[in-house]
Amino acid sequence: MTKELEIRKCNKCGNVTEIFHGEGADLVCCGQKMESLEEQTADTATEKHVPFIEEIEDGYKVVIGENQLHPMIDTHYIEWIELIVDNNIYRKKLQPNDKPEAIFKVEKSNNVIAREYCNIHGLWKSNIQ
Ligand SMILES: [Fe+2]
Q: Which of 81, 89, 79 minimizes the C-alpha distance to 112?
């Protein structure tokens, strides 16, 4: 069964999708079930994959990561950064050689989550600290 905001990946062709409306049947791609990606988390100070959320004047800046930037080379990079503020979802798509960061000019809230997807190391999440 799918879950709202779950990220699914096809381990055969590499398709990645986000579930907008959950509780339906499992997703299948290339003839097999799509893997549900775990939202990994850790201390932002030591793990360069964890989104570091900084409150700025007109919203939030998200950097991957806090003390050491994640690589942005052709073979290993952050594909997108997502910010979830209450029921609003914002996403910035990135390319190799971009900075691993995103600025979201949004209304402030106490309920802020950031997620990012690394093409090699998968899905990572943090909450505002
Ligand atoms: Fe990575």
A: 89
CATH numbers and ranges of domains, the chain: 7-36 (2.20.28), 52-127 (2.60.40.730)
The pTM for the full model equals 0.94
For the segment 39-66, what is each residue's pLDDT rounded down to a tens digit?
999 998 899 999 999 999 999 999 999 9
Distance 85 CA to ligand 1 centre (A): 24
* Angle (nearest 5°) at CA 126 between 2 and 25: 5
**Tokens coding 37:** 């990606």
Q: How far apart are CA 115 and CA 65, in angstroms?
A: 12
Helix then strand then coil, % of the chain, to nearest 5: 0, 45, 55
CA of 107 to the centre of ligand 1 (A): 30
